[in-house]
Amino acid sequence: MPTYDYICDACNHEFEAFESIKADPQSVCPTCGEPKLRRKIGGGAAIIFKGSGFYQTDYRSDSYKKQAEADKSSSKSTATPAPSTPAPAASTDTSKSSASSSGTT
């Protein structure tokens, strides 16, 4: 549901109302009670980013990107490879060899 901006032509009271798209616009001012309320024309359904974190975390400067790349490449070159684990030894089946040797006389 969108937020609409209203202004009263009688007392100049401005406020926002969270209303359904299908709802009729308000006409009576909640402050003075006059039927001179009108809906302001807004910017539409544009995205509004409030706060300081969006720009700082998503759009880094070129110097920051270069430093991050340098840090990545230096950490890759100094990293030691993990020791590989030896493959398990093949199991020997002793039941076949003992059965064949006991049957010969």
- Helix tally equals 3
- Major β-sheet, in short? 3 strands, antiparallel
> What is the average per-residue confidence, as pLDDT, rounded to a whole number?
75
Distance between the termini: 94 Å
What is the rounded Rg? Answer: 38 Å
Strand content: 5-15%
Poorly predicted regions: none
Helicity level: 25-40%
Which class do the helix and strand fractions yield? alpha+beta
The beta-strand count equals 3
- Order of helix and strand elements from N to C terminus: EEEHHH
Spatially, the strands of the biggest sheet line up as 2-1-3
Kindly describe this structure.
The protein contains three helices and three strands. It has a domain at 3-39. Helix content is 30%, strand content 13%. The mean pLDDT is 75. A three-stranded antiparallel sheet has the order 2-1-3, with no helix packed on it. It has helices spanning 53-58, 62-78, 94-102, and strands at residues 3-8, 14-18, 37-39. It is an alpha+beta fold and 105 residues long.
Summarize the structure.
The chain has 105 residues and is of the alpha+beta class. It has 3 helices and 3 strands, in the order βββααα.
